[in-house]
Amino acid sequence: MKILVVGSGAREHVIAKKLSENADVYTYMGRKNPGLRDVSVDYMVNDESDFDAIVKFAKDMEVDIAFIGPEAPLEMGIVDTLKAEGIESVGPVKSAAQIETNKAFMRELFETYDIPGSIKYGTFYDLDDAYAFIDDFNEPVVIKPIGLTGGKGVKIVGDQLKDNEEAKEYVKEIFDQKMGGFSGVVIEELLIGEEYTIQAFVDGKNLVPMPAAQDHPHAFEGNKGPITGGMGSYTDTGALLPFLTQEEYDQSVEIMQKTIDAIAQQEEPYKGILYGQFMITKDGPKVIEYNARFGDPESMNVLSLLDDDLSKIAQQIVDGTLEDVKFMDKASVCKYVVPDNYPATKAADTIVEVDSDAIAQKDADLFYAAVYADENDDVKLTSSRAMAVLAIRDTIDEAEAACEEAIGFIDGEVYHRSDVATKALLDEKMEHMKNVRG
Fold it and tell me: Which phi and psi (to 5°) does residue 138 adopt?
């Protein structure tokens, strides 16, 4: 089988690596990712919004299926375009991808179909109406641009925002800049609890969930600083997390199933990967938002644990014949290495030295993200997250220690959050949830 992977980051690297175990992988990437290059039979480096070029490359390579990594091409309708040319994709069509690309669509879907896990919110296209909602709400709020902002548009009162007055200033900024492509905003209640994600394979009707994971989105240690695309993540044995019960996991999966059922009724059947971002609260699981593709970094955790043929699963997704999927019952820890001072980095275009053989000898995996290989085959930084290191062991503690040791073989103007998945941080989360549950 020949499979085309679209995208150029660490998420696409792990997808391509897993697919290459049983299929021939071809990659269309926006920059020359050395990891993707090395697992691809052939590749093309070009603008990821150039759909004509993607179609031509897919046809020239005679691929059977496309696997879409990032959200931007999904929003633009890459799956629809490929389908019109006779190429099926692991990824939703444009109308179904709105579950991520339009936050107002997502919240309204929950209302229309009475899906559990919703929260108090308002969607506004008038600035004065948004201000009035915040004033009347009289509780801390979460401010979200309606469209895509690369995981960096959400701001929370008590975290990035001092109070609701500062939240109103951010709302005006979103309107003025048309942030995410809309002169509008979604304002939500601030949930108290612990965030977690569950990703699932979806074939339009059937949904097969993966192990739960928890991301660490803040840039600095101790969960401080700006929210980024994610500085690291972990999974635990039993597909759960230290603070997440089986009942809560099952409730979350049920919410996801009801969501794809609703999308099929209102739009078109959803095929691909559904990423549910949840908060476990004293009232059970609540949905923060959905992504219409694998998460980054959580994709590295779950796909590294996948004890099955991803190319077979991809075929089942497009055929609508999805079956149970096997995962190793292990713990995993992933940590991102990023440029110094990220996200306000000035280290772009500097060389990062990577001893990939030493990392492999430590039984850890390396996934290249927002780096590129220059004409001398040196690996150079951009202004975004550089690469991720992942370790799988019997326990979180063992995986965290192995991951930390492997990161020592990366050198350059870089840093990482050494506290990701540490016992001290997890103990804090457990104590937090004990207080939340009362």
Answer: 60, 30
Burial label for 18, CB within 10 Å (0-12, 13-18, 19+), is: buried
For residue 182, the model assigns a pLDDT of 86
N-to-C CA span, the chain: 53
369, 410 Cβ separation under 8 angstroms? no
CA atoms of 217 and 184, how far apart (whole Å): 24
CB 14 within 8 A of CB 300: yes
Question: Partners of 291 in the beta sheet?
Answer: 275
User: Nearest to residue 23, comparing CAs of 310, 252, 291?
Assistant: 310
Overall pTM surpassing 0.90 (yes/no) = yes
Residue with tokens 């991951």: 403
Q: How many CB atoms lie within 10 A of CB 66?
A: 27
Ordered DSSP codes for 166-186: HHHHHHHHHHHHTGGG-S-EE
Paired strand residues for 410 = 354
Rg (CA), the chain: 21
Q: 82-91, 153-162, 347-356: which has the minimum mean pLDDT?
A: 153-162
Q: How far apart are CA 106 and CA 172, in angstroms?
A: 22
Backbone conformation region of residue 423, classed left if phi is above 0, alpha if psi is from -120 to 50, else beta: alpha
Percent of the chain with pLDDT over 90: 89
In whole angstroms, give the CA distance from residue 331 to residue 241: 10
Give the C-alpha separation, 434 to 12, whole Å: 37
- Averaged pLDDT score across all residues of the chain: 95
With a CB cutoff of 8 Å and minimum separation 6, the contacts of 319 are 203
Query: Tokens representing 281?
Result: 């609260």
In the chain, what are the domains?
A: 2-94 (3.40.50.20), 120-189 (3.30.1490.20), 194-426 (3.30.470.20)
